[in-house]
Structures are given as structure tokens and as C-alpha cells.
Amino acid sequence: MSDFLKLVGEQIRYIRKAKGLTQQTLAEKSNLQLSYISDVERGERNISLETLEKIITSLEIAPIELFNFNSTDIENDLIEKRMIIESLRALLQERRIDEVRFIRNVAQEFVKTVDND
Length: 117
Known about the structure:
mainly alpha, 0% strand
């Protein structure tokens, strides 16, 4: 996936959570599938402008808010996120394969639960 898709997806997630919306609520408001919203937020969907408009309208924001990537809060969050991911990578590097698989499975279940919020 492109960095731009991931950045837009992270921005949508950030705004959605800041507004206290679940993925399910955003999906309903935008007339999109929950799985589609989840894919967009993870940067795994290359969405059309029409779909982007539905999401922006449902979030009740101006389009410029979605593309305001210069926000220091968002930049700081992304930097911190990358640092945490790197520290997790270093931590997992020293573990046995069965332990890494177990941690991956736990993480996947956690993400499924969070994505449904």
C-alpha cells in the first residue's frame, strides 16, 4: 500500500475517534460496509472520490481537514507509533517462532475487537 493511502486512512481513523464514532457508526452514516471502512483506515483500499466524499460528509468535516497532514498532534502520534512498532520488532526478534505466532494471534484478535468499536 502507498504511504499516502495509509496516511489518509490514519487521518480518517484519528478524526473518527476524535468525534467519538465507531467504525460501525461511520459505516452506517456513509452507507458503506464496516469491512470497507476498516480497510480504508488501514490504508488497504484505494477509494474513489465519491466514496471519500461520503466519508467526509459522514464525519461532518471540511475536505481540507482530512488532508491537513501538518498537524503536530498527528505527526507526533505517527512518530511515536513508528517507534513503538520498531521496539516491538526488536522485542519479537529475540523470541521463538511459536511465541511470535502466539503474539501475532493475540494482536490480530485485539485488532478485530478494536475495529468493531
